[in-house]
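F.,

This is the one I mentioned.
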């Protein structure tokens, strides 16, 4: 099959492409604008494969997106391209509205036009997977879980733009019959994550001997999923998912942010010991405006219906991740060079 992956130079998209090239015989076409978050360095291990192609395209550019459909005649589209960082969405929402909402609309329209021109067999097997987040469901109290039936209640510019794109994807299934599937996933972590998100920021600040910023009191709860488990889940949904359905994907790894930070500090004490403990660098900073208290996923539907469950525990996944950053500082330098120096974002000022 020919699989178009949008946002394939990003954190999850690159993990998905590495998974597809390594574990399947399919051809992969990576469509990416290469924003500050997109880096071809993350694809060096597969870039030489004759089953891999790259096109630098903005998904908001309808003409260019149509050309991709004409040139490659894909069987599958896996749509991951997005502006993905909540803090950046607080400082400037316009790019989030453009890429996440307008870009998804452009892609759905181009896919529909292409799909309507396919013969019966290819039209029936065509798949469009829209990859989304659990943040569309809003914020939880202490006990409940997000299911696929939880009402949408997004609170940040990022999550509301993703909620809009989910609604568009669902509408293109119900209105036009486009073979759409949707996934909503919890927080991902792992190798190749741009160092603006919690886990890589903490690792790098700790190693640089700087203050490790923890928002508020650090008691917000997130459910963490190792990125390679997410990649496997997305492909399982393509292979076995029921059209028009939504699948929640989660890691059964609920952790308070402060506990995540403590785990990283304690692991670094073991791997890169120094006189003072890394925990001493923790510094509590003003909370993120509108910070959702807790996200937790009920991922029983994808396990029951498609037989997927995460393979990595948080303990093994976080150790792999820390070891990966320690060995790949050249990647960190390449992707942050001129781009970003780990400064605080999203204060709303
Ligand atoms: P990322 O920010 O690391 O990567 C996004 C990629 O999209 C980058 O390569 C960027 O260059 C590309 N891109 C941005 N705008 C584009 C445009 N207009 N045209 C083409 N390409 C463009 O994001 P990620 O963490 O890999 O997330 C991927 C997807 O998964 C997103 O849709 C996100 O909402 C979703 N998601 C992420 C998480 C998470 O924890 N990171 C959790 C659940 C869902």
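My design for it:
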């Amino acid at each position: 099959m020919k699989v178009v992956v949008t946002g394939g130079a990003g954190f999850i998209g690159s993990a998905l492409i590495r998974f597809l090239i390594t574990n399947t015989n399919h051809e992969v076409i990576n469509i990416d604008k290469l924003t500050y978050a997109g880096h071809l360095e993350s694809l060096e291990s597969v870039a030489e494969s004759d089953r891999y192609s790259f096109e630098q395209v903005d998904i908001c550019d309808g003409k260019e997106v149509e050309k991709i459909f004409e040139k490659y005649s894909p069987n599958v589209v896996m749509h991951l391209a997005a502006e993905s960082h909540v803090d950046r969405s607080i400082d400037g929402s316009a790019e989030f509205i453009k890429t996440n909402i307008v870009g998804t609309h452009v892609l759905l329209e181009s896919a529909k036009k292409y799909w309507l021109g396919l013969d019966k067999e290819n039209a029936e097997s065509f798949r469009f997977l829209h990859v989304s987040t659990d943040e569309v469901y809003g914020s939880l109290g202490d006990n409940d879980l997000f299911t696929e039936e939880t009402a949408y209640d997004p609170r940040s510019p990022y999550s509301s733009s993703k909620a809009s794109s989910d609604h568009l994807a669902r509408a293109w299934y119900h209105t036009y019959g486009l073979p759409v599937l949707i996934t909503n996933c919890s927080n991902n972590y792992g190798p190749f994550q741009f160092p603006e998100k919690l886990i890589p920021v903490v690792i790098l600040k700790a190693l640089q001997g700087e203050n490790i910023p923890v928002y508020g009191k650090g008691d917000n709860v997130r459910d963490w999923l190792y990125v390679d488990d997410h990649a496997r889940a997305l492909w399982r949904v393509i292979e076995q998912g029921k059209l028009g359905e939504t699948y929640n994907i989660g890691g059964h790894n609920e952790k308070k942010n402060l506990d995540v930070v403590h785990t990283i500090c304690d692991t670094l004490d073991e791997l890169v010991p120094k006189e003072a403990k890394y925990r001493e660098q923790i510094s509590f900073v003003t909370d993120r405006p509108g910070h959702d208290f807790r996200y937790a996923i009920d991922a029983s539907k994808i396990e029951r219906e498609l037989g997927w469950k995460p393979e990595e525990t948080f303990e093994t996944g976080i150790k792999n991740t820390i070891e990966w950053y320690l060995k790949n500082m050249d990647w960190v330098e390449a992707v942050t060079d001129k781009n970003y120096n780990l400064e605080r974002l999203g204060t709303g000022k």
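The mean pLDDT is 95.

Talk soon.
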